[in-house]
Amino acid sequence: MDSYKISEILPVAAQNELTGFDPLTQKLLHNRGIATRQAAEKFLNPDYERDCYDPFLILNMDRAVERILRAIDGSEKIVVYGDYDCDGIPGSVILHDFFKKIGYKNFSNYIPHRHKEGYGLNTDAVDEFAKSSTALLITVDCGITDVEEVKHAQSLGIDVIITDHHLPARRSPRPAEAIGEARVGASGPQETLPPAYAILNSKQKGDTYPDKMLCGAGVAFKLVQGLIKKKGKEWGIKDGWEKWLLDMAGLATIADLVPLQNENRTLAYYGLKVLRKSPRVGLQKLLRKMNVNQRELTEGDVAFMIAPRINAASRMDIPHEAFRLLSTEDENVADELSDHLHNLNDERKGLVASMVREAKTHMEAREMREVIVIGNPKWRPGVLGLLASRLVEDYRRPAFVWGRGEEIELKGSCRSDGTVNMVEMMNGVSEGLFLNVGGHEFSGGFSVSREKVHLLEDELVLVYQKIRLAETSIPKILIDCALSLDEINSETYRKIEKLAPFGIGNPKPTFLFNNVEIEEVKNFGKEKNHLELIFKNSRGEKVSAIGFFTSANDFKKEIIAGTTTNLIATFEKSFFRNRAELRLRIVDIL
Hints:
There is one protein chain. This protein is of the alpha/beta class. 39% of the residues lie in helices and 19% in strands. It contains 20 helices and 21 strands. Strands 15-16-20-21-19-18-17 form a 7-stranded mixed sheet. A 5-stranded parallel sheet has the order 3-2-4-5-8, with helices on both faces. A hairpin with a 5-residue loop joins strand 17 (520-524) and strand 18 (530-536). Helix 10 (216-235) runs antiparallel to helix 11 (246-255), helix 11 (246-255) crosses helix 12 and helix 14 crosses helix 16. The radius of gyration is 25 Å and the shape is globular.
């Protein structure tokens, strides 16, 4: 149980505050930091009007709206420049649908090619926009670190509005600046912002928006809210029309792993409601290809079925195809593109499986160190993050994986096992070892020269030894409470479902089933690569626990029918082939 923490008995004070809720709901709420009845009512019953903030509370929203309205009034050419993942693409669709709704035609959407152009704005694309007389460029889910590219656009007469949610670039002050700052008490790296016409990003200094954790599409949605609030009546837009765009805002909010708290919970909650009845023909076709019932769509379907297929476009091919799928109204185009993305995702899965096998072969032949550093100049950069995640999962240590790059550089991705901050690690190596780095606490990207890649492992191991977190501070998976197999029923599921959608900041409830006897061990799926364990409750009824891409050999305890085990699992409802089934999803077996 070293990796798990069992929730303590609910304090009397918490019981009193949450009077009126059943004991299981009280426990689940308390474990998620919800301690009062008022907070619980708000959490369990999201309200769009109450829980969505005024878009004009975002710093520079009035300036961004004013510039877009001026462009519309003057019929100026507008380009929407969205990132190539399942945040930037849905966010780009939001702005596309808005311009179509008001009948504005002088705009286009641009999604950069992941491998040929890389992340963020690039000057070649900006040059092309200038040739087509573009006057206004609106970024979605990118741009906040593109200082030079924005300067270049402005020099060509293109105003830039950045909508983003990533951290601004930071630079260490020059010695003279540091001395001057010391006099006024400033310290640390300075925020460096691009010279854009307006920046919408609540992570920038001076922004006081109540939720700083919106995803990129969430920021784009707030921009459309602001535009409609300012001039919607003149355009003949009915009150509430923008709610139809919540399918894209919700899709991205769930897919981009932002905390599902505060306004994000509202966007995800209503986003799922709209997704379940969305008229987008491309989405409908894609769901049919996956045998997913649109009316019963869950956040799990979004995260593990839809998002990988949207992301497959950039990982394996042309990301604009994913944008076309979500924005098209043409049945034939939707058919073609849904097939294409579905097949690309299968190709992506095969490629990653092959890379995992190759990586594991190398791992078995070498010394295991505190940090995994592995690569192959033939490995495709777009799937390196997926490989790094698998290595972290299998070997329980940070992983840095590099692959194909340009002539003098290799590109890579890294993932943390929770014991170290990845950005801190990359910033801790010798200056000049990395050509470029970026990312978050638990994941990141980097580039390294071919001549220095052999130095990476030794340097990263040394940095890890210096900055790794103390064992006591390493987060453990919280087990919400113990349940019996008799409690796997519709009543328990309804209580759990009230807390959905689940994700970062609102984890799916995890339960411990003590000393349960395994009745049967099965492998299922076309390649027999999924595991099913059968248990029985006290009434002799079958209870199924499944693990995708899991085998009986993946656990420390031997899995044999007739033996007892401690099962850690979540509770879910499956609609496979339109048949509802309550089942457990295996987290671990101890």
